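Q: Hi! First time asking for a complex rather than a single chain. Here are the components, and I think there are two in total. Is that enough to go on?
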Amino acid sequence: MLKTRMTELLGVDYPIQCGTMMWLSRAELVAAVANAGAFACLAAANFEKRDELIAEIRKTRELTDRVFGVNISLFPTLRAQDILDMIKVAIDEGVKIIETAGGNPEPYRQQIVDAGLIHIHKCARVRDAAKMSRMGVDAVAIVGTEAGGHPGMEKVGSLVLIPQAVDQVAVPLIAGGGFCDGRSLVAALALGADGVLMGTRFMTAKECIVHPDIKRRMIEARETDTLFVMESIRNPGRVMRNPWAEKVLEMEKAGSTLEQLAPVISGKITLKGWLEGTFDQGLFYCGQVVGRIKDEPSAAEIVKSIVEEAVQVKKELDGLF
Amino acid sequence: MKDISEMLGCRYPIIQGPLGGVTNPELVAAVSEAGGFGLLAAYITSDAAKLKAQIDRVKSLTDKPFGANLVAMNPKSIEFAQILVDSGVPAVTVSAGNPKELIKFFKAQGVKVLNVAPTVDSAKKAADLGVDAIIAEGSESGGMQGFNGPSTMVLVPLVVDTVDVPVVAAGGIADARGYRAAFALGAKGVQLGTCLITSKECIAHENYKKAICEADDANTRLVNLGRIQVRALRTPLVEQVLAGEAKVSFADFTPKNVEAAWIEGKLEVFPVSAGQIAGMIREVKSVRQIIEEIVA
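A: Yes, that's all I need. Here is the structure of the assembled complex.
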């Protein structure tokens, strides 16, 4: 009942992706999502050394025999990355699906195509989605402004973005931003998407490394408890409202430069916070839908409840229309 | 309840959003005639006589039910409420401000009250005051906006889970796909705004309609007027305001400026409101065609 072009293309049971999350998309979570019949990617940018990425891919493979992907971040970073080599590692390790995001993947297309990989590109604007479809990627993901992480400068909601992207994209479309359950999955399908990606929903999953204290903060958070930082450096990030985020905003208002901001927006601080539960220190990326997250199930339970609800809602909807 | 149409006495669970200065009686009547629920924008009406005249005009064009939107913070609203009750409207919507008094008044007169809520907190408060339905309005919508509001995709299911009354989805809906998605999220109806501004029957100037039809998905902006924000098309004026080269404030939000920009088409005078869904709207159609395509 939930078979779509996305499930066919990726070889997964359900049209659900765990949105790739810097620091959090690690082997345990990715494997748990894959074992549950959904799709997930390791975030290659988590690893400074190629051997670490190799080890993580192998670890994931030990934990699941289902398909999973590797995400290659093209977002501007404070440290240099060797993108071509990361893709090479994924290819050499037998990964079949590459997800790019955060920049134009054109320089890497040939490498991805030559290796026969499935290429998903994630973007935040309809015009980029259309461009990627024309470029020949195998699937396009588009995220609305509700999403955590970096949902773009234009701040357009997913309800508005999805149908317009559907009209301009020929390949399967995966929708992100505001999704966490069966109702929202069916809404995305009604809008014409082939599936959804959800990051925030999986952040409180048992297999996610986020510290219990921060998971608790997320469960307490309302839908108005996220905000955008880093707009001044044209890379807005949606994060949870905390003293650290407020401080970054103040610095931005005062005209701080990238160099001045670098020490406080550093991913290293965020990672430390995720692991140690120091909620007042670091930027904790998450979506508006955090206001809908009220529990800490396993990834398998998350996927199962989404699918069960979606089947029910789809039936009800078909009865209405 | 299958959907909100039962409560409103119309054919389809579709409410016309109040469109401020371009909510002409002909548009309201056309929406009701097409099976939706038309709404006069009482909050922009300057006095009781004008509101009465607008109601009479709608009644001369349709015998189908219609209502009006009131702004709770407007001191004239109670006077307008009496006029609406006397005219026999079955339902009203209330936005912006504390709706307590208006809810009490209308309930005593047997008029249904739907409250516009941009957050879960405001929806819960209104539900506790006894409203008959909540219109959950996401940040995609055009016109007046709060700060840091959630999108329709996030807000609607949250409100559905929080209140016991039916929820109407507003913000980001202009076609059959969005209509269906709203119901998937648990809504019992939708409110349409931007796509009705571009209807043939709307008094909005051709320049305004054309600007909506030509907008892409990224062509609205939040313009800060001080106390409130307005989601408006990215016209040259709005670009200048955002670049700090021009200024508009709440004091400029006058009937005169609104009329000049919205009805006379002088887009350089004041920002023209539109929701993000403007990017999907391509042509001017009749209200009937818009509604028929949505429910198709």
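A: DSSP finds 14 helices and ten strands in chain A. Let me know if you'd like any chain examined more closely.
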